[in-house]
Write a structure and sequence with these properties.
The complex is a heterodimer of chains A (113) and B (116). Chain A is an all-beta fold and 113 residues long. Chain A has no helices and 11 strands. Chain A is globular. Chain B is globular. The chains are: A mainly beta (113), B mainly beta (116).
Chain lengths: 113, 116
């Protein structure tokens, strides 16, 4: 069945460090891949999405791409700031059902000043 | 931006009792969802709802669960009776359209349900 695996549970960086978070996905359909961000005490909100393999999505300095060959997708940011501290979830949906999102387990990013 | 409101933010209940979680979706949205997140684990899809009907549900959506949106008011998740394993944060979401894989979902802040 459809699934998403996100291995990095916690990442701690200093300001201006480079961020890279990776997920792998499994589906028999045609996926759209997303990154959601959840700040403390709030619900998840869409950060960006990637509809087509090898294309980039970008938002607020974050970029994401996915590789159909390795069924992986990643989120990166060149220079993180303290305000980027949050939990980042990769997620996947496909055309075969009504917007069912499959979430990864989340990566808690802590950016230290 | 558009907001999804969830009421209450925290609910404590004794095992076996009934609980109703309320969600006020974005006003012009047509598709509604519930997700469940047990502490430290990933968010998992429970159910989605459109035009008064459940469209999809997962294995987590037990017989004790039901959803409705009477007269376009709150979208509710009812659990009757509750069990200890129902303790989790429940997130409501809504979207303008459905059946489109890249449609954006808007999530509420979640209701933390504690079953004692």
């Amino acid at each position: 069945g459809d699934s998403v695996i996100q291995m990095q549970g916690q990442v701690t960086l200093s300001e201006n460090d480079f961020l890279f978070i990776n997920c792998t996905y499994s589906t028999t359909g045609y996926p759209t891949l997303f990154w959601y961000v959840q700040y403390s005490g709030e619900g998840p909100q869409l950060l960006l999405q990637v509809t087509t393999a090898n294309n980039k999505g970008s938002s607020r300095g974050f970029e994401a791409t996915y590789d159909k060959g390795t069924t992986s997708f990643h989120l990166q940011k060149t220079s993180v700031q303290e305000i980027d501290s949050a939990v980042y979830y990769c997620a996947m949906s496909d055309m075969s059902n009504y917007n069912v999102l499959y979430f990864g387990s989340g990566t808690k990013l802590t950016v230290e000043p | 931006g558009p907001k999804v409101l969830q009421i209450p933010s925290h609910q404590i209940i004794d095992m076996g009792q009934m609980v109703t979680l309320n969600c006020d979706p974005v006003s012009n949205h047509l598709y509604f969802y519930w997700y469940k997140q047990i502490l430290g684990q990933q968010m998992e899809f429970l159910v989605n709802f459109y035009n008064g009907k459940v469209m999809e549900k997962s294995k987590l959506f037990k017989d004790q669960f039901s959803v409705e949106r009477p007269d376009g008011s709150y979208f509710t998740l009812k659990i009757q009776p509750t069990a200890l394993e129902d303790s989790a944060v429940y997130f409501c979401a809504s979207s303008l359209a459905g059946g489109i894989s890249n449609e954006r979902l808007f999530f509420g802040h979640g209701t933390k349900l504690s079953v004692l």
